Amino acid sequence: MSTPESMTSPTLVTRYGAPKRRLDRRGRRLLVVVALVLAVAATALVALVVNRPTISSKDVGFDVRDPSSIVVDVDVVVPEGQRGRCGVQALDERFTVVGYTEIDVTGTDDGGSAHRVPMRTTSLAVNGGVNRCWPLP
């Protein structure tokens, strides 16, 4: 690609910089192919993450035994053949975590399992339930 003589004069090059080179046809094709490969890889990654079975939980209830203990009842649904772990917490009246423990859960053929989780607290709890669940390898 040639440029007119006036565009490459030393004064213009000093003031504005040298003219930019454009990509040739081969460079543009390569850029499009790389963009398509990245788009396909990103789509596959999103499809794997979205279609992965998840662990779900439901808070059933809690029983405050005394200022230093609580029992939390939860139902956890884990896909069959998968293992997971759930964090169960107890909260005080200011929503501060005053007790926390983790339970291991496994998938069953009917899907769900009930868990009664006793836990020690640092002060009087007024609520208890599952914080979150995650799959284990």
TrEMBL record:
Sequence intervals crossing the membrane: 30-50
One Pfam family named in its UniProt record: DUF4307
Source organism phylogeny: Bacteria, Bacillati, Actinomycetota, Actinomycetes, Micrococcales
Keyword annotations of the record: Membrane, Transmembrane, Transmembrane helix
Entries under InterPro entries matching the protein: DUF4307
Protein name: DUF4307 domain-containing protein
Species assigned in the record: Tersicoccus solisilvae
